[in-house]
Amino acid sequence: MLGIVTIGQTPRPEIEGVCRPYAGAAAIRIVGALDGLTREQVRRLEDSGGAYPLLVRLADGGTAEVPLRVLVPRVTARAAGLAETGAQLVVIWCAGDFPEIACPVPVLRPGRLVPACAVEMMRTRTIGVVTPVPGQVEAARAKWQADGFAATVTWAAPGDADGLARAGRELSGAAIELVVLDCMGHGEGARREIARLSGHPVISAQSLTARVAGALMSPRTPAA
């Protein structure tokens, strides 16, 4: 079983749709860090403050911006629960800068995976980054700089065509080698659009994570 923790609420059938082509015969179970909370309870989490807001999707179709530090213990508990119910691997479905998650099985963190892959694709470390909300821009810039990149950071919410167009235009004039869609909500359509508008190669955290997770879920051949 492939376990996935989304930082918002379920159901999230589109996440299984992204991962299924790479997961083979593995079962996929998705849980939300904020499952079971009312909209008012989520609002109070938003109001708890924090310098690193993450965009979360709610069961009613709305969104909220919840600080990373608030989400970490909730994500940790959900990951442990997935391991207890048979997950071979747990994926944190967020490209934010999550710390190491204590869990009995391996945990895949896109926020660590994507920079590690990006550095192998580049001659320089001049990179464009698209985050989902403006409040995350400075935190993302600091994170990517700490990872050793000179980052030009902009933002566009998933599904916001105007925002994607603006972000693509902004990055078209930037002296960068590669663009990263640093949000798990940006899919293949967003990747193609940013590539077209910016004139730079683009990778998405969503696609890269799904492919790596699928590779790690490949059936294992018993040792002779």
Strand content: 15-25%
Helix-strand topology string: EHEHEEHEEHEHEHEHEH
Total count of strands: 10
Rg, please? 17 Å
Which outline best applies?
globular
What's the total helix number? 8
Give the overall pLDDT as a whole number: 94
Spatial strand arrangement across the major sheet: 2-1-5-6
Q: Stretches where pLDDT falls below 50 for ≥5 residues?
A: none
Helix content: 25-40%
Sheet of most strands? 4 strands, parallel
Structural class: alpha/beta
What is the rounded distance between the termini? Answer: 24 Å
Short description:
With 224 residues, the protein is an alpha/beta fold. It has eight helices and ten strands.
Protein described:
It is built from 8 helices and 10 strands. By secondary structure, the protein is of the alpha/beta class. The strands form 3 sheets. Strands 2-1-5-6 form a 4-stranded parallel beta sheet, sandwiched between helices. A 4-stranded parallel beta sheet has the order 8-7-9-10, sandwiched between helices. Helix 4 packs across helix 8. The two termini are 24 Å apart. The mean pLDDT is 94.
Top keywords for this entry?
single chain, 224 residues, alpha/beta, 4-stranded parallel beta sheet, 8 helices, 10 strands, 39% helix, 21% strand
Topology of this protein?
Elements: E1 2-6, H1 13-19, E2 28-32, H2 39-46, E3 53-57, E4 63-67, H3 68-84, E5 89-93, E6 107-108, H4 110-120, E7 126-131, H5 137-146, E8 150-155, H6 161-172, E9 178-181, H7 188-198, E10 202-204, H8 205-216
Parallel strand pairs: 1-2, 1-5, 5-6, 7-8, 7-9, 9-10
Antiparallel strand pairs: 3-4
